[in-house]
Amino acid sequence: MSFQANLAQMPSIDHLSGLNVCDAAGNVVHHIPAAEGKLGSLKVYNALAAEFNGELNRYAAEQGLIWFNEHVLDAQKHAGKHPNIDLLFKVQDENLTYTLQPVAK
């Protein structure tokens, strides 16, 4: 399915102001705001939080890349253009584990 088709099946993010990605010590290592141009990524990461009990590990990252679908190839060709996809690559490549914390409004 396309990225837009995947988004249509995910839970609403209307109640969120963003999402924090935290390391084992609780430090925020990445933040996705509820802002124009970031809402699709916020929706994917929120769905990952729900699907994987708030954990971003290599399996969750793999699912995230599937959901980002057609944007993954562009991210591979242009490092830094899609930081939220780049983070999923990093989690996979380095076998990292983070906590996903949706932030309510």
UniProtKB/TrEMBL annotation:
Pfam families: DUF2322
Alphabetical list of InterPro entries matching this protein: UCP019302 (IPR016755)
Protein name as it appears in the record: RNA polymerase factor sigma-32
Native source organism of the sequence: Kingella oralis ATCC 51147
